[in-house]
């Protein structure tokens, strides 16, 4: 029997390794596979409310059914941040049973839920496992590897990404904080702070199969020492099901087979129905979070200069849905997306914005919309995206070299993909004139403008984003076209 469970554990580890490599690759070295994050439970659950899709529904239902059958297998096989914590615990100290944590985790969960329901998503997004994993891979692993390759002269090209300092510091703090928590108490993040772990933990109370202590247990403590969830009380012969991530380390370490994976027929009613204290706690923290969110959101408006990615729509919609994971930042072909710090105010910390000092929004690119796992960026048809206005350009003639120094330039008009800048006569040269009806705010003009540090053409964001007009080309009569061959 023990060999059988060792096989199950080996299969679990192999599946977890495949998941980890694929999800790490989706962020780092396997472009085009970012859609895998749409099948993460947290991302899929949020997408149901932002932009309902059949894929998101299938992902959420599949994970819920799996949890009802086998408990929190998702947390040890499919969740990349959970697998990362297992890797962090390789050289660990022996674990110890952790006392009941429902008060803490349900308080955190319902407070975050209430804030998110009121439109203040930031606290929830900072604890969402999939978005935190993307930040760690992008800013800690990927960026560090890129810089190291440059330092070691292994790459002749520039570093591929230049993230905001705040995003880098936050990601490193998250990574090191997670490492300290794992070294201290194993998966305490998963069972105290993670909203996905709390929700799946409640569902796992109804799991059909679960790990139980058999009559032959001698309370030796071997299982308790290897349990990363700290949910086994070897002295009282208890396995707390809602915290168990089904890693099966305990079954493999038990010397006498005192732990079994058993099918449950029924449970005590009080084990399944929340107690009055839990009910009051849930309702109180949910209401408190909603009131705090309602009070906070009106005071955090988007500054007019910040340019949202295409497909965001209005800032009210975008700010209430984007979790700041950074998948779009890493996938952006124009390298124009950056993590915000104060660009959207406190509410939008880490949410992406377009920094035209780094690049421009590519005219024929939809990568940010394609990879968004939570539906914060609506996927537009390519033709509609090409006309989608994300900002408006302003011409500051006092900065322009053509206006100020009477020399030829015109770089902005040459690089505008929609012809929103016309060159008009001025003294002995030409200066740009903006046609706002055509401008889509892609930033090509601002990025190419040679004036530094403040460009002569500046793009400011718009909310809501709308479709711009299409330039109509006027064809000249054939007789006039023919005259080009006969200038005399």
Report the biggest beta sheet as strand number plus sense, adding barrel if it closes.
2 strands, antiparallel
Structural class: mainly alpha
Strand content: 5-15%
Radius of gyration: 28 Å
Q: Write down the overall mean pLDDT.
A: 86
Tally of individual helices: 23
Helix content: 40-55%
| Shape estimate | elongated
Count of discrete domains:
2
Total strand segments: 10
State the separation between the terminal residues, measured CA to CA: 99 Å
Order of strands in the sheet with the most strands? 1-4
Report the uncertain regions: 154-163, 474-488
Descriptive terms for the model:
488 residues; mainly alpha; Alpha-Beta Plaits; 2 domains; two-stranded antiparallel sheet; two-stranded antiparallel ribbon; 10 strands; 45% helix; disordered C terminus
């Amino acid at each position: 029997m023990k060999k059988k469970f060792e096989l199950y554990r080996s299969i679990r580890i192999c599946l977890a390794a495949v998941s980890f490599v694929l999800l790490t690759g989706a962020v780092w070295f396997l472009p085009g596979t970012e859609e895998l994050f749409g099948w993460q439970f947290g991302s899929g659950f949020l997408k149901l409310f932002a932009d309902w899709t059949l894929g998101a529904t299938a992902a959420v239902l599949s994970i819920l059914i799996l949890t009802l059958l086998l408990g929190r297998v998702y947390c040890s096989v499919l969740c990349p941040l959970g697998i990362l914590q297992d890797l962090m615990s390789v050289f660990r100290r022996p674990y110890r049973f952790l006392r009941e944590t429902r008060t803490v985790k349900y308080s955190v969960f319902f407070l975050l839920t209430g804030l998110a329901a009121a439109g203040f998503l930031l606290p929830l997004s900072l604890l969402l496992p999939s978005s935190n994993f993307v930040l760690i891979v992008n800013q800690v692993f990927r960026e560090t590897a890129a810089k190291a390759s440059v330092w070691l002269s292994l790459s002749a090209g520039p570093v591929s990404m230049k993230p905001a300092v705040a995003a880098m510091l936050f990601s490193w703090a998250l990574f090191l904080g997670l490492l300290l928590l794992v070294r201290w108490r194993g998966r305490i993040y998963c069972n105290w702070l993670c909203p996905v772990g709390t929700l799946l933990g409640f569902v796992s109370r109804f799991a059909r199969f679960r790990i139980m202590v058999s009559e032959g247990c001698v309370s030796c403590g071997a299982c308790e020492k290897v349990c990363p969830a700290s949910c086994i009380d070897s002295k009282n012969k208890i396995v707390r099901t809602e915290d168990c991530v089904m890693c099966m380390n305990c079954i493999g370490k038990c010397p006498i087979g005192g732990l079994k994976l058993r099918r449950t027929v029924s449970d005590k009613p009080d084990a399944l129905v929340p107690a009055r204290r839990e009910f009051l706690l849930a309702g109180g923290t949910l209401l408190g979070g909603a009131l705090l969110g309602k009070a906070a959101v009106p005071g955090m408006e988007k500054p007019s200069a910040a340019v949202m990615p295409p497909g965001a729509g209005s800032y009210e919609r975008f700010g209430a849905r984007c979790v700041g994971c950074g998948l779009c930042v890493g996938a952006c072909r124009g390298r124009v997306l950056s993590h915000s710090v104060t660009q959207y105010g406190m509410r939008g910390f880490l949410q992406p914005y377009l920094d035209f000092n780094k690049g421009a929004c590519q005219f024929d690119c939809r990568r940010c919309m394609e990879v968004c796992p939570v539906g914060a960026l609506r996927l537009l048809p390519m033709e509609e995206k090409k006309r989608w206005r994300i900002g408006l350009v302003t011409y500051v003639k006092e900065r322009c070299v053509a206006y100020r120094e009477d020399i030829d330039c015109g770089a902005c008009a040459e690089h505008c993909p929609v012809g929103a800048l016309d060159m008009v006569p001025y003294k002995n040269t030409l200066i740009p004139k903006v046609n706002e009806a055509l401008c889509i705010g892609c930033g090509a003009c601002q990025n190419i403008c040679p004036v530094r540090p403040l460009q002569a053409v500046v793009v400011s964001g718009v909310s809501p984003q709308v479709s711009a007009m299409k330039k109509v080309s006027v064809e000249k009569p054939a007789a006039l076209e023919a005259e080009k061959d006969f200038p005399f």
